[in-house]
Amino acid sequence: ELKDKQSDFNLDNLAFGMRGNLIPGKINYFLLANAGMNGANYNPLDTSRARLVSLTDATLTFSYIPGVRVRAGLMKKPGPEEIYQAIDTMDYMWPTDFMARVQVERFIRTNAKGTTGIAGQSDGTASFKGYDSDVGRDWGVQFFDAFKHEKWTHTYAVMIGNGSGIHDIRDYNSKKDLNLYFSSEYDLPGGKGPKKHGVKLYGYHQEGTRNFEINGSGGLSRDFKFVRYGIGAKALGPIFGETRGKHRLGFELMYADGMVFYTPTGNVIDEAFGGQLQVAAEKGNKARGFTLDYGYYFNDKWQFDVRYSRNDELYATLGTTTWNAADKRVIQHLTFGVNYHFSPQTRLTVNLEPRDVKSPNAVYLGGTPALRAIQTNNATIVSDSVGARFGVQVTHMF
Hints:
By secondary structure, the protein is mostly beta strands. 7% of the residues lie in helices and 47% in strands.
């Protein structure tokens, strides 16, 4: 029996935590655990629940030096706004593909595609599951603060992290990750807290090193460097005049160079279709993402949203033999959303998301013309199998 539809009920996030002061005005703490059905508790790209509950945040923040606050522990990495912000600021149920595929890291043992790679590429065995996820976080030390000047607020954050999953405080190699973030926001009247009205410009840069096995026997490994960077803008408030309601506008442009997550099996070229996890680890393997967002707040109850996102996965690659133009994927999502706020703490979210995935380039390397035609067709079948999704979610903050 062919089933082309799937529905399910998930408790996506069940988070509970505590925050407070150890020394008022000088040292505060924050602890947060999650028991939801999400990446914090499941094996990466596996259907098995690895843990009932996971610690996702555990920090101490020290405010002794004017202009420099110091935070240590497990925390969100400075980076793109979509995953840097708190859950109560998220207007949609699902992250964009670039966030889910590129920014949220799955830790795997090898960097294999299942075939012998070009010089500098891995020819190790393929990984069939990951051993941890960072869910946008890392263990490390962050230096940050905010400065007001007339109607402007400027913020910065510098974080040195291990580059490890949330369940393992140890560093996986001798190098540290560096995460940088800067923003400037112009204040507009109205709003408060994370919903304060304003126009915000921001940018970020992330870089680090990961270690992968590079031979089939598992006896040899090497370090691979990666870079992430992006810019964006957000605006919230009565942008088009007080009589026309409140609006939200946003865009984000993001780039990744090296360590691009790519699964399942590249083009269904390498071998039989399966659930292999692959990372295009080398510098020169690139992805780029783009997001446009609009929200209209009719009143304090009703909110209407629409978002377009695109991920050009492996639009450029390091080599011209094993890695080629046929590895490129163009992933586009259009999300329509309605939020109904029962109260400031409780809201109902309804999302409809048409999705389009394309394999734009034919296979042109290896085998006979007939085999390459079959491989191209297989890749198209897999890409075309991605359809729309619909979801309803209740969010309650207490």
